Task: inverse folding
């Protein structure tokens, strides 16, 4: 999961349904900082969900950006009926939880991205659809999400963790999140960051949760940066975000920057960090962030990758992993996923 791309952890929706000890601070920050675009990164691939007006109301365009695409490139992968409630990525696979619908259940989907050796184009696998997985238990409100090779982990409003194990969500064992701890991804591993105690607990490849020597920011802590090779976070300084490098002792702070009052995500690629802002029409503008100062440069509207194959986008049809044709039709009606267009809007 550790790779060249990274996204500031906007995969979780901070605010409604947050864990005890977190909600008041998150609400106060939300009033000062611009809204965050739902996003996720596995270190080499990053996805952002930007909104646009659809025929039947607002919808979310899922843009995919990968290391090697170019600074201002992104492909339109899928169109979702609503912005995801949570997103996480690992090893080229994106996991998405959509908000509860009439059934009261939150469905979980996944899709993998690959690069074609012959053309250099990025494609979604399986082609033409997203896989559907077990729905979260009824009444579950997701406040954060992370993923590793074992699959996705979500944090409920009561702070507890659930992990997708095969065809069911089960309680994650071996860890008891503190009241203010928030699930996140740190250097490619699921982790719990607690600004109240400034501590960090990380899940290793064996599934064991252990305390890290890295110190989490306290006052003004907003979120961990998802997908970076080394631990990083974002902090709110009087309504202006700034990037910090996490380490034992005091974090190293970069300069604060004044973001536009549009939805924001931060993505890194190789040595670069990129700031995504939504255009409001299903596209995004990308600006490179200076790695020394933490300030974004001039933005450019993202375009499809150069290769002809890079303009190929998949039709968004959710397919049950082992469902019969009637189940597939039912899922399609519930999710109302749509084909993505081949061009940025």
Result:
């Amino acid at each position: 999961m550790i790779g060249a791309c990274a996204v500031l952890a906007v995969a979780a929706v901070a605010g409604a349904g947050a864990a005890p000890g977190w909600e008041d601070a998150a609400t106060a920050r939300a009033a000062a900082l611009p809204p965050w675009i739902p996003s996720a990164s596995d270190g080499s691939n990053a996805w952002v969900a930007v909104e646009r007006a659809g025929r039947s109301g607002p919808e979310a365009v899922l843009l995919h950006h990968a290391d090697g695409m170019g600074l201002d490139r992104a492909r339109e992968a899928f169109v979702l009926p609503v912005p995801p409630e949570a997103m996480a990525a690992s090893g080229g696979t994106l996991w998405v939880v959509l908000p509860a619908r009439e059934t009261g259940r939150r469905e979980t989907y996944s899709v993998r991205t690959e690069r074609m050796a012959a053309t250099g184009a990025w494609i979604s696998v399986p082609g033409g659809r997203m896989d559907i997985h077990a729905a979260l238990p009824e009444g579950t409100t997701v406040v954060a999400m992370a993923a590793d090779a074992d699959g996705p982990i979500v944090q409920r409003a009561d702070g507890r963790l659930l992990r997708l194990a095969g065809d069911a969500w089960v309680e994650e064992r071996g860890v008891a999140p503190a009241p203010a701890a928030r699930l996140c991804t740190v250097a490619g591993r699921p982790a719990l960051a607690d600004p109240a105690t400034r501590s960090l607990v990380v899940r290793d490849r064996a599934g064991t949760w252990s305390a890290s020597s890295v110190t989490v920011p306290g006052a003004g802590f907003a979120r961990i940066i998802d997908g970076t090779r080394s631990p990083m976070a974002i902090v709110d300084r009087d309504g202006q975000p700034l990037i910090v490098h996490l380490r034992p002792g005091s974090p190293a702070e970069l300069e604060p920057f004044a973001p536009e009052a549009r939805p924001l995500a931060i993505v890194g690629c190789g040595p670069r960090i990129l700031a995504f802002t939504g255009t409001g029409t299903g596209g995004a503008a990308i600006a490179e962030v200076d790695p020394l100062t933490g300030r974004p440069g001039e933005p450019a509207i993202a375009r499809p990758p150069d290769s002809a194959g890079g303009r190929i986008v998949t039709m968004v049809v959710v397919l049950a992993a082992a469902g019969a044709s009637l189940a597939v039709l039912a899922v399609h009606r519930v999710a109302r996923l749509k084909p993505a267009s081949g061009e940025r809007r």
About this structure: The first helix runs from residue 23 to 32.
